[in-house]
Amino acid sequence: MSRTISQEVAKETPWYRIELDAFSVYPKVILVSRWYYRWLLGPGVTTPWVEREKKFYHDVFNLLLAEAFRNTRIRMTATDRGFTTTLGVDFSIGRGLAKYRHWTVLLKKVHPTSESFTYQSKVMPNSLTIHLDTADIKDYQPMNVAGKTGIHNAIPHEFLHAIGYHHDESHAASPHLGDTNSIMNVGKQIRQRHLRHVLADLEDLVPNARFSMA
């Protein structure tokens, strides 16, 4: 029997778990990426991590994601039933155990005066490793190679890398260099291309539907 959208649909991928909740009061796409943190100390930092700090940074990361995706909606068109609906998104980071992690996150505690650009943050898909530091929760104003600047935050940017969009659009080779407001450039706006793996997974879950950003 072919799968229909009336069934519970969920998928585990190497990068995240995705679920389509199409028939609740507030229909939505739920995506959780499970991160296993390694708590490191940066140069000159000697105070060890305590649980209160660990919870604080994990919670702030999720708040930054909630803000980044606050206006994002996904359109689902059921081709076999002739209707379209709009889904909210609930994208979050789960604090996972090593056994169940999607990603290992090397989170470095740095001096409070450090800026987000002081140390390089990056996602390494081949090793399923993310490098972040505590200054990454701060907004900053980067410049791309075209000399354009914008207000930016590293956490949702790196999260989008982690869920499948591996391109940086601030580089000369990017066809989207001119899209300054893009969150994968120097801005904060989400584009459909950034969610292409998510949309493809949804269509894999529900072959008789098409998904796009609303």
The quaternary structure here is: single chain
How many individual β-strands? 9
Task: Just name the CATH architecture.
Answer: 3-Layer(aba) Sandwich
Order of helices and strands: EEEHEEEEEHHE
Instruction: Give the overall silhouette.
Output: globular
> Please, how many helices?
3
What is the structural class?
A: alpha/beta
CATH topology: Collagenase (Catalytic Domain)
How large is the radius of gyration? 18 Å
Mean pLDDT: 94
Beta-strand proportion: 25-35%
Number of domains: 1
First-residue to last-residue Cα separation = 30 Å
CATH class: Alpha Beta
Uncertain stretches of 5 or more adjacent residues: none
The largest β sheet comes out as: 9 strands, mixed
> Residue share in helices?
10-25%
